[in-house]
Amino acid sequence: MFGIKPVMLILLVILLLLQYRLWLSHDGLPSLLRLHHAVENQRLDNARLEERNEVLAAEVQDLKSGLEALEERARSELGMIKPGETFFHIIEDSDDAQ
């Protein structure tokens, strides 16, 4: 043969198998890249949800502390009015009626 000792041949085969496993197998580098991508997507989702939670927490604090925010919400969402106020509902004419 070419003077390659059996130990060197075995080591070369082991090296090739490890390289295959690193670059091409399902639990190698491609899997690591997919995991990194998934982690980055999760970080973005978490940041978006944290921002939303902060907005909701501020709104809850406003509702707990001030009557103005509560009154505004009752007017806009529930159509409530104060005693002595008159509610006017304006209906715009549609073009189809003419």
Structure description:
The protein is mainly α. The chain has helices at 6-23, 29-65, 67-78. Helix 2 (29-65) crosses helix 3. The longest helix has 37 residues, at 29-65. The model has no long low-confidence stretch (mean pLDDT 83).
State mean pLDDT (0 to 100 scale). 83
Radius of gyration: 34 Å
End-to-end Cα distance, whole Å, is 101 Å
Helix fraction by DSSP (H/I, runs of at least 4): 55-70%
Q: Tell the overall outline.
A: rod-shaped
The tally of strands reads 0
**Largest beta sheet, briefly?**
none
Order of helices and strands: HHH
Strand content: under 5%
Q: Number of DSSP helices? A: 3
Question: Residue ranges: pLDDT <50 for 5 or more in a row?
Answer: none
Structural category? mainly alpha
